[in-house]
Design brief:
Dihydrodipicolinate Reductase, domain 2, 25% strand, Rossmann fold, globular, 330 residues, seven-stranded mixed sheet
């Protein structure tokens, strides 16, 4: 069976990655409708050896569509996803619009695929940082319940979109040339700098990105008691987020059992060569489907603690690939 597929936000970084993933995985596409703002309408994008014209997103854009991938921000998802469902499509949404709604499944297919069955027309793709963290922790969780997570993220420009990636390139060229550069996409100088994640800080001191990691982890795991303490930072890397993670387990398994669990887990690649000091790096995670995990060790300061370092491509497993995997499960 083949499907009529729509991509909302097709000209954005995630939208273009969706096209590549659908083609690479030979998803059974019968027809493809690319949707974006009026500014991008008329653009042509490559898919399976052809050029597909981008159409302006409108309320009636979803007639005859079976699966609609949304990656155009929460405002457009809230406005148009219900219309897509009314037209008969299943929506896989990459924004934060529906993630915490109780009736909307929040899915990482390697972790909670059964949640897909409960959908009522909309399935939410988790935040990229949450996906990478939980993929890196799931092999541990298969061995013992995780009580607490302390995580620091090193997030690439790709998480802020194609314009942020271009700003990093432009700012770096200017810096190396000794020329002034004023950022317009991100709030601080980006070349050779890092700063707290560019999302709003709440009264509790956590920003929106950190709050997503807390709430989404509890929903995906079905564990409202797990404690999550994140600190999210933007770093001058084009794509692929990195995360330093300490997990406190109820019981601490032997290290050989931990390594065996990581080697066996689908979607994770163990990169842990102590002799060569070779561990996960964003440059090696870029373009990869797997989340790279290494620097695995018992944490010296946490009871039953295990520390590790992970890298994952934010545009692939952190967004487009996870969404296509959900569609494949459907």
């Amino acid at each position: 069976m083949k499907y009529a597929v729509a991509i909302v936000g097709a000209t954005g970084a995630v939208g273009q990655e969706l096209l590549q993933v659908l083609e690479a995985r030979r998803f059974p596409v019968r027809s493809l409708r690319l949707l974006a703002s009026e500014r991008s309408a008329g653009t042509e994008l490559p898919f399976c050896g052809e050029r597909v014209r981008v159409e302006r997103l409108q309320p009636d854009s979803f007639r005859g569509i079976d699966i609609a991938f949304f990656s155009a921000g929460s405002a457009r998802s809230k406005a148009f996803a219900p219309l897509a469902v009314q037209a008969g499509a299943v929506v896989i949404d990459n924004s934060s619009a529906f993630r915490m709604q109780p009736e909307v499944p929040l899915v990482i297919p390697e972790i909670n695929p059964d949640a897909i069955r409960a959908h009522q027309g909309i399935i939410a793709n988790p935040n990229c940082s949450t996906i990478i963290m939980l993929m890196a922790l799931e092999p541990l969780r298969c061995l013992s319940r995780i009580r607490r997570i302390v995580v620091s993220t090193y997030q690439a420009a790709s998480g802020a979109g194609a314009r942020a990636m271009q700003e990093l390139l432009d700012a770096t060229r200017a810096y190396l040339s000794g020329e002034p550069y004023t950022p317009t996409v991100l709030p601080h100088p980006y070349a050779f700098n890092l700063f707290s994640h560019d999302s709003a800080i709440g009264e509790d001191g956590y920003n929106e990105e950190e709050r997503k990691m807390i709430q989404e982890t509890r929903k995906i795991w079905g564990d409202p008691e797990v404690a999550v303490s994140p600190t999210c930072v933007r770093v001058p890397v084009l794509r692929a987020h990195s995360e330093s993670i300490v997990a406190e387990l109820e019981t601490r398994p032997p290290l050989d059992a931990i390594y065996a669990a990581y080697r066996a887990f689908e979607g994770v690649q163990l990169v842990d060569d102590r002799a060569r000091n070779h561990f996960p790096m964003p440059i090696e995670a870029t373009g990869r489907d797997e989340v790279l995990v290494g620097r695995i060790r018992y944490d010296a300061g946490t009871p039953n603690g295990v520390a590790l370092f992970a890298c994952g491509d934010q545009l692939r497993k952190g967004a487009a690939l996870n969404a296509v995997q959900i569609a494949e499960r459907l």
